[in-house]
Amino acid sequence: MNIFEATNFIDYAWMVPFFPFFAFILISLFTIRNRSLSAFISISAILLSTLFASAILYDRLLAAQAPPVIREITWLTAGQVEFPIGILVNNLSAAMMCIVSFVAFLIQVYSTSYMENEEETGFCRYFAFMSLFAASMLGLVISPNFFQIYIFWELVGLCSYLLIGFWYRRPAAAQAAKKAFIVTRFGDIGFLIGIIMLYLMTKSFSFNAIPALIETFRANPGIMWSIVPGQYLSADTTINVVMFLIFCGAIGKSAMFPLHVWLPDAMEGPTPVSALIHAATMVAAGVYMVAQTYDIFRAAPHTLTIIAFIGGITAFMAATMAVVQNDIKRVLAYSTISHLGTMMLALGIGALVAGTFHLMTHAFFKALLFLCAGSIIHALHTNDIWEMGNLRQSMKVTNAAFLIGALAMSGIPPFSGFWSKDEIFAAIFASPHLILKILACFVNFLTAFYIFRVYFTAFLSKDRYDITPHEYPAMTIPLIILAVFSTFGGFVGTPWNNCFAAFISPEGSHGAHAAFPIFPVALSLVISLFAIATAYALYAREPERFEALLRERYKTVYSVLLNKYWIDDFWNAVVSVVMASLSRAASFIDGAIIDGIIVNGSARLADEAGKYLRYEESGSVQHYAVIIVISIVIILLAVGIMHGHFSMDLINSGGALIR
Amino acid sequence: MAMTGINHYLILSLILFSIGVFGVLTRRSAIGILLSLELMFNAVNINLVAFSHFLESISGHIFAIFIIAVAAAESCVGLAIIICIYRTFRDIRADRINTLKW
After folding, report:
1. How many CB atoms lie within 10 A of CB A58?
2. How high is the pLDDT of residue A66?
């Protein structure tokens, strides 16, 4: 029997996250001291996942109209609540699975070279965590319900903590890891509350069942909440509030304003980790969650509007901050935030296909850019773009790859970013919000500007170092593969033949795609070209002079941007005032009352009482006997008095008993 | 002369028991304490036999016989302990053997 004919790969989708998870266990338990074996296990596991995911994607491509495959079992039951786990394979998750495993595979191959200077256990630990990270993300992608997605959601958060703080001996890395974990927890609390409320409303966790159940709830609310006593929220409001709470999770994970502060700091981790976090895992989780549960979000139009505006604001703020950064990784970090904002904006205005399409193209070109940055950092041992320069000569592959990534990001045809970005642009121009249109134009300009500022400074101009940079084959090959995908990946979603849209939302693509409007596309292209030209004029030959000039002339703007709009300071203040006073109160209760009175108090009581009562222990047997006799007499008297028969009653009743 | 009723036996038993308790609490010699204990046992036996007779049940007799047997064994153990105590302390006065204290 031929296994490939007889079985349906989709039923084995659970194995896709299982392989890297198994690799994680193997490495951490058995091969933690063996470099090459650890890397081999990790890479072959993720390669297997990639092959499985490709097979599944192929199955889905053959039958794109087929209904999603859902396999769920009840994992545990608590009272009347049943917690299901299982797999969900629809077109979106199949595509996402493929991209996540493929990008993770390339990044792991790249890491073998990038991490070569780590000592043994560090190297193996790195691959163990990378495997766990990939496993968590793949588990998240195939989650069919909110309960399971929440588990993997937190696992992804944990892995990001472990990997951002990989060099935990560096205080900055340890700080950044904690920050990433705690800030995303802020959003996750909302996510958890939202999931619980949604469960109470619909009695279901399942993505598939909730859209219908939520309409039942709207018609006939079985449960109501009130903020002011006596006044209940209407069903409509409840749905919007709950969906916003669920979106809070995405705010934290996908680094939306105002919880974006962790992402730039996360650059303290090794560069391939940044690439993985930024391209395919972690930050993509939020956007993916919204896209996968989009049918539920559709029931909450006000929340979608809020999502659009949060996305727009995030995209704009992050893009402005990216312009003034000197650290190449930080520029890319802010650019990730900006792109995630754009994706959310697209989802918010109803352009599901455009948003997910951008998620996919972004995964490739952002991974590409990060790995290029890693290649440079590995060669020059610096993150500062002002210590690079003229790398075009010495790092030819990296130069070409970075240029492709930058062009894709700026939305220059035919690179992949052009198709997805302009789909979003078209959708924004079809939407009624003027502010979003203006923001989108600014973001478009800034995106092309900041990435080419980096490109021109680092790859053109003159060299500012005294070593000869080298490239390594394990690093350049992934770069070439990613560059190919960044170049041609967009052709799956061209306006005249939008296979991607047909694949992701087969039931009918968005109205905006039917007639592809030429005006927004032309506008965005002109803006991007203008931005690149501006960057060329400023940074191609004498970047230092113009940078200094700009900083001098726009002092106020620069100080706002360098201070990151004081959002970090705002959170610091919140934490130091609110959290610190709460902590002090908690510390007082713990220290003075629980520890002081209850725990130590009871010990002191026993101690003090013992000091005096011990003299009772005279050691003389007869002394004890006296006490025993007196006690017995007292007990007998007490019992007798209480029962009130000091007479023959006792004997009589005893006799009756014996008889 | 009045018939001897159960109360007479109970009073006899009470007196014997009290003498026994007094002996246990006041005798200095460990042997004396052991003897007083025997008095207490026998007070109990009298009680049991008296109840057995007046309530026309055999259980009390059986208890009494058991107690006599157990008391004999107990005396053996008690005497053996006293010998051990003597070997350790060279003394069997109960008020002198008071090292197990604070």
Report:
1. 12
2. 75
